[in-house]
Predict the structure.
Amino acid sequence: MRLALISLSIEDEAGHGPVGMLPLFDGNIVDKQVESAQNMGAKKIILLSPIMHAGLWRYADGLKVRNIDIEIVRDAGDLIQYASPQDDLLFMSDGVFPGESIEQALRKQRDELIYVVANDEIYSGFERIDLSHRWLGIALFKASRLEEISQIPEDWDIGSALLRTAVQSGCDRTLVSDADMQKYATVLLPDAQTSAEYAKGQVDNVHIPRQNFFDRYISWPLMRRAIPLLWEAPDAKKYISAASLACAAIAVGFSIIVWPVASLAFLFLGALSLLLHSRISIFSFGNGKSRLTGPIFYLLGAAALTVNVVQNAHPEVLAAELTILVILFCLLWAVRTVPDIAALNWIKPDSVLILGILLVASLFGYLAIGFYVCALFCAVYVAIAHSRRFTADSQG
């Protein structure tokens, strides 16, 4: 079995507990370390913390609720009871986690291996092994080494002790280049400021697939500025989720009292809130992303649009306009299922864009025409997407 040992031995200088519990994205650094450990094949997570913080116990209990096998130990003596000599032991130092390339390599690795960089002052945050290398704080050991360090004093660092025994036995090393380090082959977050700067950089550089022109040039630039601030606010994700549903419910109310402009405005705001909710969760660990907010919002939105059509249509055309609305719903579903054509992404219909068109139409008193335009827009997109896919398959 493969175990992961994550060190929480270093306390934050500002007094916020272990470095690993510092905020990162909408969670903390340990979230990212646990996720990396699972990506590298770890079946059990062991947190090494000489000080048993109450917050750490609550965190571990939260992971257990999510069916993650996790334990907390104080020292090498406690650690040895969870490992057999045949087990593999993934180790990550305080505030350290690997990039995707190292994750993939260690997932396949079976022999002991330590990751190092050149002994340079720019890597002074990493432990020096010898005159040539510094250890990146990431390694794969055999759990049998725990027997060798089981009697070390309590104030000794277990990671360093494991490293020394591995180095003395000639354990293989992989040298990570400066170029790869600049691409975050390994990340070290020793304090809250560094963690915040790293998170902001990731948001600035993240690639959002299948963006249309409205999302690319309006929605996402605004959200990119807001997300780091929202990560700092407790329960921001829950409030935004509630806001999207509240907007949809208010939209239903306004549609009942025949205020189509207000109804569409709140639906549009709700769709933006729902999009923001998903973007806040873009780096979430595990099942942090809500699965119910979207379906509930779309059900309320469909109800609001249906009531708007019923309340505003003339009796003689009501059946036709309801038919167009049903066709629009079907086409929006079809848009989500058609093959992805990169050249068409900039005009790809989504809920925000469609509700924006309907809002503009209602402002000018042409809501019915807005439904026809949206249905035609979606139909043309679906037809072109299928046509291009058929052409590509024929040529292939």
User: Anything to note?
Assistant: The chain has 15 helices and twelve strands.
